[in-house]
Amino acid sequence: MEAVEKEIRNDADASIMPIEIGPAHPAMHGIVRFTTYIDGEEIIDMIPEIGYLHRGFEKESENSRWIQITPYTDRLNYVSPILCNIGYSMAVEKLFGIEAPRRAEYTRVIMGEISRITDHLTCVGAAAMEVGAFTFFLWFIKAREYLWELVEQVTGARLTTNWTRFGGNANDIPDGFLQELHTRLEQTKDILKECDALLTRNKIFIDRVKDVGVISKEDAMSFAFTGPMLRACGIPYDIRRSDSYSVYDDLDFEIPVGTVGDCFDRYLVRMEEMWQSISIIEQASDKMPAGPVILDDRRVSFPDKKEVYGNIEGLIDHFKMVMDGHQPPLGEVYMPTEGGNGEVGFYLVSDGSGTPVKCRVRPPCFNYVAAMPYICKGEYIADIVPIFGSVNMIGGELDR
Amino acid sequence: MELKVKTVKRVDGFQEALYLPAIFNGLKLTVQHFFRNLLGAKDVVTIQYPEEQRPVSPRWRGRHRLTRREDGFLKCVACYMCETICPAQCIHIDAGDHPDFSIEKYPVVFDIDELRCVFCGLCVEACPKQAIRMDTGVIAMAYSSRKRFDYTRDLLKDTYTPNQRTKYTNIPLPKTEDEALPNSRGIPSS
Amino acid sequence: MDVLIGILLIPTVQAVLKIFVIIFALVMPLATVLTLMERKWSAMIQDRVGPNRANIPFLNNFRGRGALHIAADGLKSFFKEDFIPEGADRFLFTIAPYFGFAAAMATFAIIPFAGPIGDFTFQITDVKPGLLYIFAITSLGVYGTVLAGAGSNSKFALLGGTRASAQMLSYEVFIGLSLLGVFMVYESTQISVIVNGQNTYWFGNLIPKWGVLTQPIAFFLFFTAMIAETKRAPFDAPEGESEIVAGYFLEYSGMRFAAFMLAEYIALVGVSVLVVTLFFGGYHIPWLHLWESAPQWLVSLLQFMKFTIFTFFFCWLQLQIRWTVPKFRFDQTMALGWKKLLPVALGNVVVTAFIILIAN
Q1: Is omega for the bond preceding B21 within 30 degrees of 0, making it cis?
Q2: What pLDDT score does C312 carry?
């Protein structure tokens, strides 16, 4: 970067042109700024600048009780909020040393995989729109609407879900939900098939994404890639299998991996992951046991409303839980989960009081955006669009 | 379970190089959509707001309401639990003495700044008296001044009307206010 | 009265009147309606409704299912602030939109819209080198984008303008090469001769010798090259929209922007009109000549309707293609042209020459 700047300053008619692909730009979803130095159409260097959506998640968490942080986690990866909710709740459960009941875990898996599908629909749809396939994007948004309606049925909101609690979930799936789920999944499958026919074998699209933004396995690992970006390079690393949590051990699914590590592989990996998620949801809904959806442990959950209205112990427990907050034991924990975009990890430090000492989230797309200059050097300026689209930068997650 | 890996297939052969077959396939799809929607708008998913409103589920967290007892007074006893648990600190309560000794307190001032609210629903879970609910079904409030968003106690008083605007036939509507309670233990009601 | 008829019989006056009628009664309404139809048809493909809200308040909120958006868009462009960016070359910035406008309109000068009634042709003028005139006029359109790109003091616009110039110049070559085949088959560059040549039949009155049947490859090439020339999707890299936000017309606002947009839609209509004329028989309805007793005015009317319907179909097809297919990257546009279309075009010329040689 310094060399480039020096060259521009020394040579008055250098052919290197700095161009701002600025924060307000159609292709910079989320918000990020790239100062690109181009020579004709080729990128010589690129400087990413992030932080336009920084809202102080960690600092805010230091002043909140543990339960009050759950709404903040929705807004981290706001296209797959339930996966962030799950990650955070599982981290706190690890701190407490408890496990949620089986039914809660199965419903978490179902809702989490629905969230994962919405994440991939948004990512692939937006990337396709910027490459020029507007119809593809809008059909995917239609599918996403169906899924968001499902999420709303269960959690009460489409995006700011705030659904998981420590030791389980806030509420159970309503009656008739599984039927509705099945119908909507069939509609989503139809849309996925249609959109696949529209784009996957289209040479115009293949030319746009094939061998564009290639990153090798070694480089991807050295940048600490995880998630679909790493799987597209050929490394079958999925936390649902390698560091298995929740009930993923009982569910049978495949990990799609690519070979080359270009944008085409990432697109294909994400499309295939959607099919795998649909299969996981179907298996989980078949295997769902009956039972409670939250642990009846007074350290972590509010008492049942009947107890609160009925007897004084329930009321006191409820009161203490609200006023003092949850008080996990002294310790620190790191819980990695497979978010929509890669490994979403929560590092929590507790000192036994009602507020955390530290609550850090590991954003998967931080590494991808950090690797953007490395990937984009030598590519054309028009290639930034499919590369950045396949990176799936979520501003809320990146800047927290 | 063991790790099952599936390598994605990159198809880029002779048929793709001809350009036209994939374009014709795509055209076939879009033309199908075009004619289906031209003669009848069957697949169109647009809602003509504000004449039609989007149907919301019974659990939709909309604007708050304070519930009443049978005799018409508010159920709220100004215990400050919702104010404590609110992550956005948008609820402000001032308690006052209630003349009836069995109901010791009532809220003289109960303000919610709906602009600060993040619509998380924790206040509903925290309330021990089922006094504050978010089931009005109001999707969004749109005013042209910030002052309008400060909802005082009298603006929040409301009675329960089952939210009929859901279009899902499989999921039954709650018939009574008790049925519409957020189920904190999650045992299915059926 | 006699003086009036005398004036009307002067060919120049007739040509000027034809210009007015064709431009104001046919081309401009069609182009303007297409601006709305683009949005409505794209909405129908994408399972939504499209614009339908513009209304007239004092006429009981009459909406007309979105038809009023045409007027609304025009009025909006009219009232927007018209500014020229600091550092931009004022003269070039100002004249740039009108090159594309003029070039697009000028293609209608040689197109026959219906069969002649007696001495009166429905063609503004019938120059001998008709096809060459088309090449020349499309070349003029390049100036508009290049001046817009270079004259706005903006890097994105410069990128767009550079891309546009390279793309438009190279695809003119392919227009020429594909039309070379047409020239060889119909043995003339004069448009009326080409159109009348498509009224002849093989196997005696069975299959009309339409351009698409005599030169199918040239049809695909010409259609592709003209879509690239008018910078419509999938060849709208100069217009960018994702990476360079709006390309060469980034800094334009208000009526100047509307001029660019309108020029694009008029060019769209021009492409359709050219395709119909050169490849789909122009105004000739096949086998209509078998109906001997048809009155002349009815024949002309039917021919005009056929022409309009086919033009409308090709406009629709271009819009449909835009919403189906992703965009090319700029260097892929050039690679497609020079590495793939050029050999095909030359091959087409060779094969056509061969077949003509054998057939004679």
Answers
A1: no
A2: 92
